[in-house]
Amino acid sequence: MNGFVSSDGARMSIVQDDNAAQGHTEELAEFPFSAEQRQSLLALAEASIKHHLCFGRAHPLEPGDYPSDLLQHRGVFVTLNLEEKLRGCIGTLEAVRPLVCNVVRYAFLAAFSDPRFPELTAAELPDLEIQISIVGRPQSMQFVCEKDLLAQLRPGLDGLLLEEGAYCRATLLPSAWRSVQDQRQFFNLLKRKAGLPADYWSESLRIQRYRACCIS
Length: 216
Hints:
The protein is an alpha+beta fold. It contains 5 helices and 9 strands.
């Protein structure tokens, strides 16, 4: 499975006003989905979970029933929250399937295959909150040291993908900024998620950043 298990937390204390304005402009350009289309994706994620609970199998999907905007190949993460606590989150940065297909796939996986949680039950469904993050194409970052990297990060806007060697790989969605105070905490959290010490640094680190459209 080409996917990540992801996590989000509480709230970041400050998000700069200029970053918020910039983020809104960039989101409109990179993720031109209407309000109706966004609601359609949320309904599809819920239907995927309900179908498995009722019938024990994957939700049937006819991509031809959806507009071309929702058939774009996009990476997706689906996050589930219950009583303001994480209940599951799985997704992919790889844009190799139509958006609607990824929403169905990762809603199912977040509900029933996140290794950190037991499978979702029907009793939990009425209070379940679903969040879909449609991710943009990751862009490689150029930096000379950790300080330089941190200075380039945009709180509230940037998701990061870290790679070190052949097997060390982790990502944090832009929504994870809500659980930290600043760029250093964000990057340290990413390193710990990758299984690295918070003070780890290497010139061989590869970092990519990406934007995400959050629908909830």
